[in-house]
What does this fold into?
Amino acid sequence: MKHKKKIIIPFVILLVLFLIILNKDILRFTYDTPRQRTFVPEVDEKRDYIVNGPVTLKPGSYELSLDLTVEGNDNGVFLVDGDDNFIFYKDIPNGTINPVYPFEISGSTKQVRIGIRYDSGSAIVSLERVKITAEHILYRESLLRHLMISILIVLFAVWLFLRLYYPSILWKLFPPFAKPENELTLLCLILLTAAVSYPVLNGKVYIHGDDMFFHVTRIKGLADSLKAGYFPVRDQLYWLNNYGYGVGYFYPDVFLYFPALLVLLGFNLLTAYNIFLILCTFFSIVSIWYASLRITNNRTSAAASAIFIACAAYRLNTIYYRAAVGEVQAAMFYPLIVLGLYELFHDHTEKWPVFAAGFLGILCCHLISLSIAVVLTALFLLTQLRKILKDRRIFISLMKSVLTVIAIDAFFLLPMLEQSLTNPELKINQVMTGDAQFNVTNYAIPFDNLFIRFKPWSGIWQADSTYPGWSMLLVLLLGIMVWKKREWLVKTADFILLFSIPLILAVTRLFPWQWGIFLPFVSRIQFAYRMLLPVTVLMSLSGGIYFAALTENRKQYIWLFVLLVFCFFSTANPILLESVRNRTVEKRMFVMQDNRVSGAEYLPPDFDESFPGKNMDTVRLAESDIPLTITAHKRQKLGFSFTYEIPENSGEVHFSVPLVYYTGFRGTLTAEDGTVLHPVITWDDMGLVSLANEGYSSGTVAILYQKTPVQWIGECITFLSISAVFLRKRTVVEYGK
It folds into this structure.
């Protein structure tokens, strides 16, 4: 005991020294972003160009560094604040390369933008990078980030100390880990997660996935909107020069609040994204491990299922190639749906909340995966129709699950329905109704892909590069090897596998998908190969059962290691290596682009994504022949105000305000005589917010996004439903005591 007490002091000293070293850069500020922009006489006019978005700077001394080359005279660099007042201007002499300019921010905090003054006479100005640094200024984001990291380090250090010297205290705090097998299992799951996540463990790089920019921008939009005070976030800030993008109405983002909060805590956007991917991988592995353990009561089966899903080619494909973050999240919940169905049809109907939790989780992250889950579950229920009709408890439990999921997710479902009905011009309505067409060639995978070990990724023809991998073929082989064993668990695995095989064939071009183009489901899921994710989950569960049956009464830890080596090197590692070699980009090269809206499904059909960057904060008139003077304007959050003048006797005219229209905007018009009106807010021919002047030739218009009654009702239903769930759980626990 005395020896243990002597260890405490040096342990604390080492921890403090480590924290000091870790936090030595807490007063360092860095804004660093590529700005690949070249000004040439043939293209660019002689004028001032803003080259970056606003950067918030506190009072203090800074240094502006530019990766810049100049050929010609009369060019310059400047900084302006939020009111377009010059903070400084410097001439850039001919032949300048990579200049550095010190500057001061005095008074209050300012939002600054960097600009280039270009003389198009004969000059060529090439800008590669913009960097602002300071060494002795404390920012809230830096403080929060360092504080959070330090807390995590301290917690880990305390856990390590207790585990080494006072394990009884640790086990008293966390009873499940008093069992060595539980502790070992957690460690193995963490190591397995790290093994298949190594491309994103390097903090200086990111993996360029096809849809990565879209989802990273969603995180950025959530963070900016939360900072502005919006919750839940539906119409997101940042997008389209802060015109707003209603992605949150139709694309569930419940779990993306976590990386958004990391951004608000000062973490780099890409770091938050990578952390989120790693956590999704971890919980996907934990989820199938838990489901397999509950079904089989066999740790070997659970471990094997975890290895299969961790190394599954399609799951890794969604992370590193497609960056399909919705499907990445859905992988965490498919196992719960399977487990829930297992419980319902094995006389445990009281465990229907597991089934409901699986569907609720998918509904909170990806509607396309939800569509697939609903269809596949319906197909399974058809095979069990006789049992459902015979045992009414199953039917009642299914209905409880459906109603619970709808009630808890009402905060999302009701506003989505409202937007679809009141804003029919949005592109997403075509997709939701099945009117959108698909590319048959890129819809399903070639049949030969079922047998390949690895295929390099083609971002254009994704179906050609999608495959289940050899680890899934191993499941088929294991099923054949234990064919003669007739234990009920093996029969369960056989049923799961037989259910999966037609689905695998359905994702290939053998299936005549083009015949069903009129079905909403076909166009709604966009690609047939998306069904590979639930199929992979099903086959991983059956593979775990087969593996446990085959290695029964043998040294299962050794065989699990052999399974891991095979699955990792045959299926996972080729994808991971391809990602590192050909899709890795340094973080400092990452450039956010607010006009990258992917398929633009949540915009009006005639909206031009490049328009906000050109139009900026300009208010236009639909009646273009009438002169309009804007004497003042201001953009604030999801709102815009301006003071206008038009000629007398112009009558009623219609303003186009630089905000994308979604149901929920409200506006007031205050005339010169003090009259306050509430014009009807609608959309113009492009999809921007539009309203009439009500005949007044001058006045002030203020427009702001507000929650609708439908949104309030949805949120109240969600709150009451969650409260009822917790109260029910508490009542059951107390009654059990």
Remarks:
- Confidence is low (pLDDT under 50) at residues 731-737.
- Residues 617-706 form a domain with the Chondroitinase Ac; Chain A, domain 3 fold (CATH 2.60.220).
- Residues 631 and 643 are 6 Å apart (CA to CA).
- The chain has four domains: 2-24+142-176, 29-134, 200-435+446-588, 617-706.
